[in-house]
Amino acid sequence: MATKKGLLQRLDEGVVIGDGGFVFALEKRGYVKAGPWTPEATIEHPEAVRQLHREFLRAGADVMQAFTFYASDDKLANRGNESSKKYTCRGINDAACRLAREVAEEGDGLVAGGLSQTPTYLSGLGKEKTQREFQKQVDVFVENKVDFLIAEYFEHVEEMEWAIEVCLKSGMPVVASMCIGPEGDLHGISAGECGVRMAKAGAHVVGINCHFDPFVTVQGLRLMKAALDREGLKVHLIAQPLAFHTPDAGKQGFIDLPEFPFGLEPRICTRWDMHKYARECYDLGVRYIGGCCGFEPYHIRAVAEELAKERGKFPKGCEKHEPWAGGLKMHTKPWVRARAGREYWENLRPSSGRPYSAAMSKPDNWGVTAGDDILKQKTASTTEDEIKLLKTKKTKA
Amino acid sequence: MATKKGLLQRLDEGVVIGDGGFVFALEKRGYVKAGPWTPEATIEHPEAVRQLHREFLRAGADVMQAFTFYASDDKLANRGNESSKKYTCRGINDAACRLAREVAEEGDGLVAGGLSQTPTYLSGLGKEKTQREFQKQVDVFVENKVDFLIAEYFEHVEEMEWAIEVCLKSGMPVVASMCIGPEGDLHGISAGECGVRMAKAGAHVVGINCHFDPFVTVQGLRLMKAALDREGLKVHLIAQPLAFHTPDAGKQGFIDLPEFPFGLEPRICTRWDMHKYARECYDLGVRYIGGCCGFEPYHIRAVAEELAKERGKFPKGCEKHEPWAGGLKMHTKPWVRARAGREYWENLRPSSGRPYSAAMSKPDNWGVTAGDDILKQKTASTTEDEIKLLKTKKTKA
Amino acid sequence: MATKKGLLQRLDEGVVIGDGGFVFALEKRGYVKAGPWTPEATIEHPEAVRQLHREFLRAGADVMQAFTFYASDDKLANRGNESSKKYTCRGINDAACRLAREVAEEGDGLVAGGLSQTPTYLSGLGKEKTQREFQKQVDVFVENKVDFLIAEYFEHVEEMEWAIEVCLKSGMPVVASMCIGPEGDLHGISAGECGVRMAKAGAHVVGINCHFDPFVTVQGLRLMKAALDREGLKVHLIAQPLAFHTPDAGKQGFIDLPEFPFGLEPRICTRWDMHKYARECYDLGVRYIGGCCGFEPYHIRAVAEELAKERGKFPKGCEKHEPWAGGLKMHTKPWVRARAGREYWENLRPSSGRPYSAAMSKPDNWGVTAGDDILKQKTASTTEDEIKLLKTKKTKA
Amino acid sequence: MATKKGLLQRLDEGVVIGDGGFVFALEKRGYVKAGPWTPEATIEHPEAVRQLHREFLRAGADVMQAFTFYASDDKLANRGNESSKKYTCRGINDAACRLAREVAEEGDGLVAGGLSQTPTYLSGLGKEKTQREFQKQVDVFVENKVDFLIAEYFEHVEEMEWAIEVCLKSGMPVVASMCIGPEGDLHGISAGECGVRMAKAGAHVVGINCHFDPFVTVQGLRLMKAALDREGLKVHLIAQPLAFHTPDAGKQGFIDLPEFPFGLEPRICTRWDMHKYARECYDLGVRYIGGCCGFEPYHIRAVAEELAKERGKFPKGCEKHEPWAGGLKMHTKPWVRARAGREYWENLRPSSGRPYSAAMSKPDNWGVTAGDDILKQKTASTTEDEIKLLKTKKTKA
Question: Which of A205, B377, D112, D267 could cysteine-pair with C353, CB 3.0–4.6 Å?
Fold first, then answer.
C-alpha cells in the first residue's frame, strides 16, 4: 500500500471519482432500514456491503467510502434503534473499514472514513458532547489506517467546523461536504460563506453532497467557488449530489419533497444526466466527483466514461458497457440498433409514463431546525399518538 | 430436497412469488451488456449473480430462476457476441443452475431453468432448428435437476408451442409466459388465443412477462383468463411484468418506446405500485406473481408484503422494512415521520421532477416481425454504415 | 332568400361549416351565466350575440345557429332561473331567430333553430310532457322560417327520438346530434346504435356534439358510421365537438372532469388541432363540421382554412389570417419570422407552462342518470345545506 | 365629463382596473393580423372594437385604452403593412380615441391614448426620429382630449425615456410601462433601475406590461418598488401582464417561447389565477391593475371580483357571474353543483389534457437586440428566401 498515491496528490494531478450513496442502494436491496438509515449491515450482511463496494470500484470509483454513515453512537441509539446496544459504534465502524479496505485492494482504491451530523448537535447539546461523538468514530478510522476522512451530510456549518477540528487531529487529509443547496445552510449562512468557513477551519477539500440534484448542486458549488476565490482560499472541491431530479426543492432539499423517500422513482437520473453532470463539474474545476443517495453503480460508470479522456482510462466495468449506447448495435430489433449513438440519447427528454402526475411538487416547509424541540433526540420509538399529532400538523402546513 | 413442495402443489395451495429480471438489474450493476443481454456473468462474475439471487430470496421470492435468459447457443453467437465461443451454451447454463440452487437452499426456494425466444426462429429457420436450440438448454436443466422449466419472453405463440413441446419431454412442470400485451402476439393472435394455445400445448402455468407495465399486463391476463374459462381449460396463471410504466406502449411494448433501454428511469414503479399490482393479480386469480425487467428486490418485497396475510408470512428481508413505511417513525425530521402510514403513500401521485418531459411518448412502430430480413440473425457486429441506414429509417418513421 | 341553397343540397355537394358554441364564449364575454347556461342574452344584450354570430360568419361558418340552447320553458325556470318569467320562452327564442337571420343575411348563411335535452325528461315526466316543451320552441322556429332544425346535446337517444318526432312535423330538414362519446349514451346504448336509431327516427343528418374533444368525437363518429353502413342507412354526418382536450374523460365527458367548467383553460385546442380535426372529419366522410363549447371564431376559421381547397374558397376573415402562420413573416423578431410555416406548427407539442399540473385528471363518476332523484327539476335555488351535502358525497366518491 | 375623477386622484383613493390586451383578443375574433399586430380594425371594423371595449367595461375596467397599439406611422408601414398608406396613422389613432370615448361614456370610464416602442428605435435611427413618431400619435390624443397617456410595451428604458419626454409636453398624466421581467430590459438594465429611470423621467405611474405571466410580473414589480423606495421616489405602480403562464420564459419573455403566438392555449390563465394575481398586486401596493395579451373580459372580471370589497363595488357584468363559482348551484348535474365554492377552485391544479406535452419549454434565445441588423425596419415583406435563412439559424440555435 505504501506506493499508493494519496487523495490530495491525486486531486492535484487530476480527477478522483467517488462512489455512490449506500443507504438508498442497500435499502432497495434489503439491508438498510429507511427511517433510521444506519449501517449495521456491515456486521449483519457483510457480503452485501462488499458487493456494492465492488460494483462501484468496477464502475470507476477511486474511493471506497467505509459504510459509516450515521454510525455515531447517539444516532445508533435514536428513536428505538437497537444497533448501538447490539453491535456498538466501534463494532459497526470497524467492520465498515475492513470491508472497504478489502475491496479497495482489489483495485487501486482509497479508503475513507466518514462522519455525518449528529442527533447530539440537533438536540442543542453543545460542542463538547458533539465532538465526543465524532471522536469515537475517528478513533476507529485511525486504528484502521484509512486513507482520509470525510465529514459529510452536515446541514449546519457550525457543526461541520466542530467535526473538522476533530478530524484534523488525526493528521489525515480532511474532506468537508455539506448537504446544502444554493440557499445555504439551515441557519441561513450562504453557500459561499459555508465554503469559506470550511476552508478556514482547515478542510483540504470542501463541497456539497446529498439533498439536491446534480445540477442544483453544481449551482451551489459555483457560489462556493466564487466565495473561495474572493477570499483567495485554495482548496479542492467535491460534488456528491443526489441521483434524483429536484428542481422544485426548497432549502431543505429532497427531504421536504412529498416523494421522499419512497416515491422518488420518477426523479431518478439517467446515465446521460450523469455525463452532463460530470462535464459541468469538470468545467467548473471540481476534481472530486462522486454521488450520494440514488446513485447506482451505472451512474458512477457514466461519470467515469464522460471523463475517460481526461483520466486516460475507462473503468473495468466498461467491458460490459460501451460509451454512448454502443452496445445497442448488437440489439435484435433494428429500431433499437438505430438508437446506438450519442446524439439520440443526448437529445432525449424521457417521458414519465405517468399522465396523472405533475412535473413538480410543493415541498413541505415546516421551518424547524437545530434546537427546535420537535427535532430533539429521543431513545424511545415514536408512538402512534405522536405520529397522529404530526399528521395534523402536516395537513395544516 | 425431497421434502420440498413442488411448484404445482404450491400454486394449488396459495401464492408463489417469482423473482425479478436479471438483465436490467445486472446491467446497472455492471455485469450484463445492454444490446446482447446475454448471461455470461454466471461464469465471469458468479458472486454478483449469487448476490442478486440472494436479495430476491430475502425479499420473499419462492423461485430462483437460473440466469439463463437468452442463453441459447444461437443468441450467444449473434451480432458479434463471443460468449458462445468463450464459455459455451452448456457452460453458461450449467453455472446458472448451480448458482440458483446454491441460493435456493439458503431458504425454501425452487429452481427454474428458463428458455427464451431464439434468433433461429426470428430468422425463419423453422421448427426443427429452433427446437434443437431449446433442447441444448433443457439437457443442462435436466442434468441439474431443476424443479421446473419456464419458457418465457416469446413474442410469437407458434415458437412458444415448439418450446413447450421440448420442455414437456423432460417430465418437469412447464410454465409458459409470453411478452405480449392486450393486443396479442406479433403475428396478430389475440392474448386470449395465445393463452388457450399454450394451455392446449400442455403448459401447466400460462401467462405474461416483460414488455408492459404491471397494470397493462393484468389487462392482458384478464383477456387470457376469460378465453381459458370459455374453453374450460384449467391452468394456473403467471404474471411477471416490467417495473416500468408503459401506458403509451403499442403492441411491441417498451422496446418501441423512445426511452428503451437507457432512458426509462422516470417510468420506474414505486413499491406502492407493486402493492396495487400484487392485489390486482391476486384478485384476478393469478397465483404465480413475480417480475421482469426493472424489478429490483424491493419491488418483490412489496409484492410479498401485500400478500403477507394470504401467505401467512413476511419475507426475511422485512426485518429492514416495515410495511407501509412504518420505518419512517424513526426518521429525524418530524414531517417525514408524519409520512409513516398507508394513506399517505397510497394517495401520492409522485411528481417527475422533469418539467421539460412529457407524460407519454409516441412509440416507434416499424411493424417488422419474424421472418423480416432486417431481423435475421447475423454473426458479425453491425457496421457503422448499417447503423447510419437504420437511423435514416428512424427519422422517416 | 328563395335562391339560397338548403342544408341538404349543400351537404350533398360538399362541406357545410358550423359555428361554435355560444354559452362558453358568451360566458367569458360576460353575457351568459355558467350553471344555468340559458340564452336570455338574446333579449338582454342583442349586440353581443349579434357580434359573435358575425365573427363566426367571417370565420367561415355557413350556419348561424340561433342562440336557443337550453331555451325550453322548463329549463328557463329551473333552480332559481327567472328567465322564463321575465322574458318567456317565446321571447327568447324569437329574438334568437331574428339575430341569427340578420347576420346570416350579411353572407350566405343558413339559420338553424335548436332544441336541447330537457329537465322534464331528466325528471322522468314522460314523452308527452317532454314533447310539449320541444313543441313550444319549434313553433317559434316555424314562425321565423328558419332553414332547418337541429336537435343537439342529448344524452339519451330515447329523448332524442321524441325530439326528432316533433321536429319532423315542421317539414324542415332535421339534424340530430348527441353529446356522447365512443361509449355511447347514458342508458348504455352504444354510439353505433344511437346513430342507427336517430336515422331510423327520420333525422336527415346524425352525429355528435359537445362533451368530448375533436379526436374522441371522431372515434365516436367512426363507430356510428360503421353501424349506419351495416344497416345500409344513408344519412349525412355532423361533428360539433368541444375545443377542449379530453383524453381522460369517461362516459359523461367533460362535465365529469374536475376542471369543468372554470379550469378548462389548459385543455383549449390550438388552431392546429382544428386543422387536424377538420381533415379527420373530412376523410371519414363527415360533411357538417362545426364546433361546440370552447370553439372561438379562430377555431372555425382553422376548419375553413383546412378545407379551403375542397370548398373552393377561403373565409372572409382570412384577410386577417394567412394559412399556416403566414402572417408571421411580418413579425418584428426574426426568430418568430422563422416560425412562419406549416411544418413548425404541425410538429409543435405545446407546453402547458404548469409544472404543478398533471396531464390527465380522474373524472368524477357518480353514475347518476335520467330518473335519479338527485337529477330532478326543481324551481327553487339550491340551498347551502344541499350544497354541503353534495360536497360530502363528492369527497367520498 | 368635467365631474369625472382623473386617473391620479383615483389611484390615490383606491384601485384602478385596466382593460385587457386587444391584439390577441381581436386576432382570435378575426380582426387583427398576428405578425404585424396593428390596429387598423378601428377603421375597418369599429363594431368589433367597440364590442370588446364594452365587454371590458362591463367586466369592471375603469380604463378604456384606445386601440392604438403599434399605431406609429413607421410600424404601420413595416414589412409589407399597407395600413399607413390606406388609413394613415392619424386616421387609425383618431378612430381609436372616438371608439374608446364612446364606450367610456356608457360607464364611468377613463380614456387613455397609448404609445408603444417603434421600429425607428429598433433600427437605431436615434432620438429625434423616434420622438417624431411618438409626437404624431400624441397630437391625435391631445385633439381627442383623452384622459391620460400610457407609454407601454417598451423593451428598452432609453426609448421609454424619450417617449415620456414627449408625453409630458401634453400636460396629461403619463403612465409608463415596460415589457420586462425580473431580469430587466434588453440592454441589461435591471428592473429596479428601469423603474427609477421612468420615475425620474417624470412618469406619474410606472410598471410592467406584457411578456410575462402575472406572477413573474409581480416579481418584477417587487424589484421595481424596492428600487423606487430606496431612491425615495413616490409614484404609483401599474401591472398589466399576460394571461399566459410563463415560468420558463427567459429575458425576452413569451416571444421567445416556442409556442408564441399560435400555440399558447395550454398556458392560458384561469379566472382563479387572476384572483391570486389581483390579491398579490394589491398587497404589494400596485394600484393600477389590468391585463395585456391573453386577457379576455372574464379575466378582468375576476380582478374586479377579487377587489370588490376594497373598491366597494362589483362590476356590472357580475349579474352573469357570481363570485367563486356561485352560479354552479344552478347546474343540472349534482357533482357540478358540489363545485360551487371557493375552496374547490382555489385548490384545483388543472390538468392539461395533453399527455404528449411537457410542462415547460426551452425558449429561443437568439440574443439580438436594438441596433442588430436583423431587427431593422424594412418596408418590403419578408421573402421566402429570407424565411428559409431564418429557419436554418433557428435549427442551429
Answer: D267
